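User: Batch of two.

Assistant: Item 1 of 2:
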Amino acid sequence: MQHAFPAVRKLIFGFSLLVLFTSCGSIVLPHQKKRPDFLPEYLFKSNKQKQKYLKAYNKTLTLFDVPYEEIDVQTRFGPTHIIVAGPKDGQPLVLLHGMDASSTMWYPNLKAFAKTHRVYAVDYIMDAGKSVLKTAPLNNDQVVLYYNDIFDQLKLKSVDLLGTSRGGWIAAYLAIQPNTKVRRLVLLSPAQVFGMVDFKIFPAVWFKMFPSRKSLARTMEAFATHPENVHPYFRNQFYIASKYGDSRPQITKMMPFSKEELEKLSMPVLFFWGDHDCMNSEKSAEKAKEYIKNVQILKVEDSGHFMNTDQPQCVNEEVVKFLN
């Protein structure tokens, strides 16, 4: 029976992923049954819920300890909200957040990054945040068009790109495109770049399906070595995004990169992974070393997937050193 338990756990995990992640927008999660079918990929069922989220978002903004501005740029898929900071003549650094996190997640890092770079923290249009999707959900080719629209609107000819979790996958995908504008690439515990997720993320799957304060706490414990470092303002915003919003992972569109795809990353790459990282492991590091020509690999001690809050000083110092 002791040997059977891990197998049963993996079976349950696999079924949960099947239900949650293969929907591509077709399956409504238990807490979203009353959501109107005509709504785009990430919206709230009522204006009251949306305002509650925006209030939490704005409260998290008060954690930024550096001057910033909020702007909106138009894309063919809808308006996109961006938090901007740093010298106007600085090298552009674009930040891509993780699922349901929004650009407010960078509150421990923005000040350090903005010392030398012009930072653009983008609210992904199919996720939590202030961007508004006006079309059907985007496929991967459209995601590339979407970010190209942003770069063109901002008149960015060359960018440094940093992505974490799902944002890490998107960042890597943008970087392998022909005529990419990515000068340097930072992958901060990316999701599914080097391999599929495993049962270690089950608490997050459960939280996504049945959001509650209790399941959120379990997710934080599974994803972070120091969940106490996650500020209550951001924790609350993250909870509201999952409870009332409808952001679907679409993980089947985020398949691990092949050898040939990873070899297309010709720019300098910095890959972070944590010693308690539920998304990456020694195998990820080995794959990065073998297939990416110009890669620096940094194993962060006492860190999980939520690396920018687990070890913000290390992340800030290493990113700034790499980019400069």
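Item 2 of 2:
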Amino acid sequence: MLRRNPKKHKKDNIPTCGVCGLWDQFCVCEILPRRTSRIEFLLIQHSSELLRQSNTGRLVEKMVEPCEIIPWGSPDVPFSAESLKKPGTRHLVLYPRSDTRLLEPADLQSPGGGKTSLVLLDATWAQAKSMSRRIGELQDLPFVSLPQGEAPRWKLRRSPGPGYCCTLEAVIRALAIIEGADFAAPLALALELVMTHSLHMRGKLNKTEMEDICLPIIEGLRSL
């Protein structure tokens, strides 16, 4: 059972989808778009994200390929960095730090002509900050960031600022840079759809408000 906060939330046991995080009656998995990118995505997921309803790493894995999730921080599952050592692949860590440069379209190809993999830290911002320092295999990799002008869309978690967005939104913005805005647009619709249902589940939107937003999105996704 997914929860809003695994440590604090004790709400009723409403059946919840393990992928989109929505109540089963709202599950949208069957209409989520699937995009094949020329860039690889590698999500290092904090163990506490497994039960969080607001986690979006699962949605990235569902909608974007190639994508791999590597667990981190679990006493039962040792962290494996083998995917960070893939021959012929350049890894860029997508995380905002003071020493980062902006992600750009040219990052699609590595200098040697091989593939590029974007590494994202799928966690709360406090956890991601710690992971960016504690995971030794990341320290020798170049860090890149996204432009900070646009405010984050995801409203299920607090954001430290304009350049900080959820995992799925970071992937969407990265794909818009690498593959183009049209390529990423269906994923942005899916994010809006899941978020709107989630806000209704939390009592932030009534049923009419939810349907006014969701029904056109559902129609648009079904037409893809």
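The chain has a mean pLDDT of 92.
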